[in-house]
Amino acid sequence: MRKRWYDYLWIWSILFFALGFFNILFAWLGLIDFLVPLLFAIIGGNKMFCNRYCGRGQLFSVLGGTLKFSRNKKVPGWLSSKWFRYGFLAFFLAMFGNMLFQTWLVARGANSLTEAIQLFWTLKLPWDWAYTAGMVPDWVAKFSFGFYSLMLTSTLIGLIVMALYKPRTWCAFCPMGTMTQGICKIKRDKDESAPLPTAHE
Q: Are residues 14 and 62 in contact, defined by beta-carbon separation less than 8 angstroms?
């Protein structure tokens, strides 16, 4: 099967983490992976980003499928259950909200900038080589460290479940996938309930 340009977007996922490793400010580029799926869902009412353009999903396919780093076992039903998907989404949004709150505190001067990456929301790793103090306002750097932490943690979770089960097991409970699915459903229900146009005589 002939490869298309978007079949190579898994390279983007690797590039994002590589750039952030050397300069944490590149973490802002990760907003692309947050905003574009929402635009597809809100404007187009579809999950085309997840199905075609998601570099992270492609990376799991390459590592788990092509390179055989996956046990390729059946995904447990609870991982794709509604309660787990929406529960994980709620937890993810809470952590994202806390990250924004911490950024706001730094912007207000209430907290000082901590140059560290927080893995799995608990483990702090020094990351000071990736940022030179004073390059940008502290809140900009704080958002970078927080957002990179979020992206790295979620990717590590995806790699763990990839190794244990199917390559793209992460997609079964991905918060962004759950959110865009909900938006598409709301949009579809709204379109179906809209009154039909009346014919003009």
A: no
pLDDT in tens, 64-105: 999 999 999 999 999 999 999 999 999 999 999 999 999 999
Rounded alpha-carbon distances, angstroms, from residue 184 to 41, 60, 201: 6, 24, 35
| Residue 27 CA to its chain's centroid (Å) | 12
3-state secondary structure 27-66: HHHHHHHHHHHHHHHHHHCCCHHHHHHCHHHHHHHHHHHH
Residue whose tokens read 């990179």: 148
Backbone angles phi, psi at 183, to 5 degrees: -65, -45
Global pTM?
0.91
- Cα gap 1→198, rounded to integer Å: 47
- Which of the four pLDDT bands, split at 50, 70 and 90, describes residue 197? low
- How far apart CA 24 and CA 147 sit, in angstroms, is 9
